[in-house]
Write a structure and sequence with these properties.
Structural class: mainly alpha
Number of domains: 1
Strand content: under 5%
Largest sheet: none
Number of strands: 0
Distance between the termini: 43 Å
């Protein structure tokens, strides 16, 4: 695997995790 693919995969996972947190936090705070 090329470094670009690895970097892209990590960024995709981080974005997915960030979106999940952004959706879950308002649910727990409300």
């Amino acid at each position: 695997m090329t470094p670009l693919v690895v970097t892209g995969g990590i960024v995709a996972v981080l974005l997915f995790f960030y979106l999940g947190v952004a959706l879950l936090v308002p649910e727990t705070l409300s």
